[in-house]
Each structure stands twice: as structure tokens, then as C-alpha cells.
């Protein structure tokens, strides 16, 4: 019985990622790179077998929900690999996160 637990622990779980790229902001000119960088990172991660949730120009609640969902999915698979990548700018902690 113990060997089956060891085999389970050694079996790799899913590769999961949340990638966020915010280029558009209400009180300033749009940034050029964050959305492009997020799309590039998504392509690279998918090429390495990651299941990626990509958010671009998202509001805080959507970003928080995606990170919480990532945590839940990672806890369901102890041997999984998780990654959070965010590109953007913080000008008001109430509205955007990095």
C-alpha cells in the first residue's frame, strides 16, 4: 500500500498558469508591452505543456478570481506545478495589481 502512495506522489500533476497583461489604464496612455508580453508568455508556457488562463486588461476582481482558482486547482493536485505571471503597472492599488 505504501508504494502506491509513493507512486502517486511521484506522478507529475498538471502544469497550470495564470498570465496577466494589462496595457490599458483609465488615467494614462496605454502601455505597449504588457499585453504583448503576456501573449508571448502564454504561447511559451503552452508550448511547455501548461494549461494557461490568460487575462488582458482585466479588472481587479477578475485577476483575483483567476489567482484563487489557480490555488484551488493546484491544491487538488499536490504534484502540480503552478505559475503566476503579471505584467503591467500599478498606479492605484485599489484598481490594478502587478
What report would you give on this structure?
This protein has helices at 2-10, 33-47, 60-75; strands at 15-21, 51-56, 81-87. It is α/β, with parallel strands linked by helices and 98 residues long. It has one domain (12-87): Rossmann fold (3-Layer(aba) Sandwich), CATH 3.40.50. Strands 2-1-3 form a 3-stranded parallel beta sheet, with helices on both faces. The mean pLDDT is 81.
Short summary:
This protein has 98 residues and is an alpha/beta fold.
Question: Could you describe the largest sheet, including whether it forms a barrel?
Answer: 3 strands, parallel
Class by SSE composition = alpha/beta
Give the name of the CATH architecture: 3-Layer(aba) Sandwich
Number of helices: 3
Total individual domains: 1
CATH fold descriptor: Rossmann fold
Global shape: elongated
- Assign a percent range to the helix content: 40-55%
Low-confidence stretches: none
Radius of gyration: 16 Å
Strand ordering within the main sheet: 2-1-3
* CATH top level assignment: Alpha Beta
Calculate the terminal CA-CA distance, rounded to whole Å: 45 Å
Q: How do the helices and strands follow one another from N- to C-terminus?
A: HEHEHE
Mean pLDDT: 81
Number of strands: 3
Amino acid at each position: 500500500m505504501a508504494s502506491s502512495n509513493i507512486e502517486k506522489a511521484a506522478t507529475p500533476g498538471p502544469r497550470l498558469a495564470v498570465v496577466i497583461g494589462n496595457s490599458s489604464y483609465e488615467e494614462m496612455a496605454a502601455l505597449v508591452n504588457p499585453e504583448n508580453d503576456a501573449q508571448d508568455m502564454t504561447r511559451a508556457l503552452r508550448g511547455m505543456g501548461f494549461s494557461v488562463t490568460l487575462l488582458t486588461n482585466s479588472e481587479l476582481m477578475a485577476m483575483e478570481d483567476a489567482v484563487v482558482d489557480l490555488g484551488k486547482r493546484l491544491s487538488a493536485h499536490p504534484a502540480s506545478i503552478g505559475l503566476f505571471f503579471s505584467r503591467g503597472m500599478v498606479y492605484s492599488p485599489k484598481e490594478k495589481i502587478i
